Amino acid sequence: MDEGLRDDPLFVHGLEVLGFDPFARLDEGTRFQQPALFLCSVVGWERSGIAAPVAAAGHSLGEYAALVASGALDFDAALRLVALRGDAMARAGEERAGSMVAVLGEDDAAVRATAHEHGLTIANDNAPGQLVLSGPVAGIEAVDASGLRTRRLDVSGAFHSPLMAPAAQELARALEAVEVRAPRFPVISNGTAAAFGDIRAELVENLLSPVRWRETVVALRGLGVEEFVELGPGRVLSGLIKRILRASEVTA
In the chain, where does DSSP find H-type helix? Predict the structure, then answer.
């Protein structure tokens, strides 16, 4: 983490809202990783100086930062939602054992058929040749042994699959108390690859549904986005965007 972040007023305020420092406990999993990622992304947005974006999107958790940037969600409320989401997803993973595996460089149709065969969900459609599967541990292990080129993800549950239903129910209840405003610019939803309509309902559904990142990026280009700026702790999305669109200006 950029140590200068700790002096940022919004970052300091975020830690006060949380009542704990998630960066001190990142190795304890998604309960702490999610609020940490959210803080990095929103502070990155505040520091970016981007005045009038054409549109925005976030990959899974990143949707919350994108909605804050658009003015649809208040920072404090979104941070509390993110902390609740992380905790609820961790508990769902403890109650319903599952895992995730990335399948790399394989034919998409073959991967989807394999997922169906083993009762798994396509959790992320990240880019050509990169699908992430999610579901029961037995199914994930079967895919690992199938001969496909795979990489197990270090996660505590089967995210973006039906096994997250308890977390989705808890998130839905929390969202009922959160004010949602019309965004100042379109924010593309992972679940529909179109601009958010019913933000509350879609955030809940997106916890269970695939992250359609490939289609999300194409939708951003369709809205006229020519330059992509990644705001957060890394360059993973920048690499995916370059693979999806081939020739795009991307800054992290």
Answer: 9-18, 30-48, 62-69, 75-95, 108-117, 137-144, 165-175, 199-206, 213-222, 236-245
Tell me, yes or no, if 60 is annotated catalytic.
yes
Q: Find the catalytic residue in 134, 160, 189, 209.
A: 160
Task: Report the alpha-carbon distance of residue 40 to residue 142 in Å, rounded.
Answer: 36
Catalytic-labelled residue, pool 13, 60, 118, 238: 60
- Can 160 be counted among the known catalytic residues? yes
Please state the three-class secondary structure of 207-219 as a single string: CCCCECHHHHHHH
Judge whether 171 and 88 are in contact, CB under 8 Å.
yes
57-113 pLDDT per residue, tens:
999 999 999 999 999 999 999 999 999 999 999 999 999 999 999 999 999 999 999
Three-state SS for 103?
strand
pTM: 0.95
